[in-house]
Amino acid sequence: MKRISLLAGSVAMLLAAATGRVAAQDYVGGRVINAPYVDAGRMLLFSQDDMTYGTSRTVAMGGAFVSLGADLSSMGINPAGLGMYQSSDWGITQALSINSTHTGITAPPVSGSFAADGDRVSYGLNNFGAAFNVFNGSKGLTSLTLGFTYNRAANFNSRTRLRTTGEGASIADMYARQLDNMVDSGVDADFLLDDAWSEELGAVLGYEAGLVGLGAQGFHSNAGAGPFSSEFSSLTRGGIYEYDFSAGANISNFLYLGATVSVKEINYHDRTTYGEGSAAGSASLSQESTIDGSGVSAKFGVVVRPLPALRIGAAIHLPVLYSLEHDYEGTMRAFDRVRLSESYVETFRTAPRLLVGVSGVVADRAILALDWEAAWYDRIGLRENTLEAEVASEAASEAAYKTAHTLRFGFEYLASEATSLRAGAGYMFDFMRPGADGGEAVVGYPTVRSGYSLSAGVGFNVGERSYVDFAYMFNRARLTPYELYYYERDGQFTAQYSTDGGRDVPRDYRPLKNMHQITLTLGARF
Questions:
Q1: In 10 A of CB 132, how many CB atoms?
Q2: CB neighbourhood size of 278 (10 A)
Q3: Which of 285, 204, 227 is nearest to 107 (CA)?
Q4: Most C-beta atoms within 10 A of its C-beta, which of 75, 120, 302, 338?
Q5: Which pTM does this prediction carry?
Q6: Residue 27: how many CA atoms within 13 Å on its side-chain side?
Q7: DSSP states of 80-128 as a string?
């Protein structure tokens, strides 16, 4: 199985160019190791838009709105839908979300091992905005609508707790190999934290805290002999928040054009703890990462209506170029206690997207919509970091990911002049590439690799101008497999593992994430 260091290769190339250190041919990473830097797994996390954002109507119809319009969510999906407004509109959508994750342990079960992932409940603003119909005509340019909307594009709230027993290795074994590699690469053995690359910070903390020692034969573990028990916990919160400024035009009720300038804000906080123990003693590593930043992008869309009951739409979302401020703090407790803080500035590019949709009206009372989306996650790339040098990191993403394809279906039925019934579904196909040996590639940070959603809702017209919409969506996602730590160099592999009949079995974690969301939209047309 090929382990993919999430940006370790690109960071190594960058630092080698800047400091003269020789970059070793190795792979290093895992949920514990990747905390100090924005790796390919986190870049994927920051590139994925949740299928559940938007108004209740959009949520209930599964997000299948590429060819539909006259909805505030159109600005974030296909701004050409703004051209379908015949009046102005404003609305606000509140959402109650419950996220729960189940982490599977692939190694043979050992008495006392478990994976307990708690629910995270959050309540907040899903969408708000307004569309202003500023022009109406009878020929040529039939109407022009300008709009602004806010969407919560992703929800990072999650909680994870793992405990394993009967482990055959300690993280100190990996740290010792990493430190030997640092010395082999030209760093004096009496190094300081400033000499470490970001993926080596844990190893240096381990050495400074006494978990790793230095002798005549090089670095060695002070953790003693196994078996070891370990415990890992993670609490993440935050999200991606999108602000769209859009314009949509209707040309002769046949052609609809639209454009959006999109500003996105990332707020991410991850607090992790990893501890292990044996007869020789115990050690723990606490880490906190706070990542804040913003980016700008553009979206362009078109819808054609060749028949009164048929619409065909397409939209392209250009990559978002993010600038991020990353604050990291790590504390190692072993024989001594050592703490460090680091700050980074990083710039990276998200994946471009193409969306195509078709919809039709049936018997003047029902709407059917089908959308297809392609997201080129293999084009994600880190552009710059605090050393102000370009990093050719697309190789890391290309090795792990390929194009992601998503299908969405939406249905709406006008039960009466005042009531609409809605339903929807969506499915994202797996986009992970296989490892070098044909098995699964294991990345360091768990993010969505495939999944499906089911939704339903109802809308009410209140009087002549106001409306109230409700929606419920269930989303199940299969996440990328991950390990807590791994290090591979010169064909030798070090990782957390259990022993089964004399056979070392790496502990891969393969999580599933469920989300339940209830939304309420209040709006009015004027």
A1: 17
A2: 17
A3: 227
A4: 75
A5: 0.86
A6: 24
A7: GGGGG-SS-EEEEEEEEEEEEEEEEE-SPP-TT-EE----EEEEEEEEE
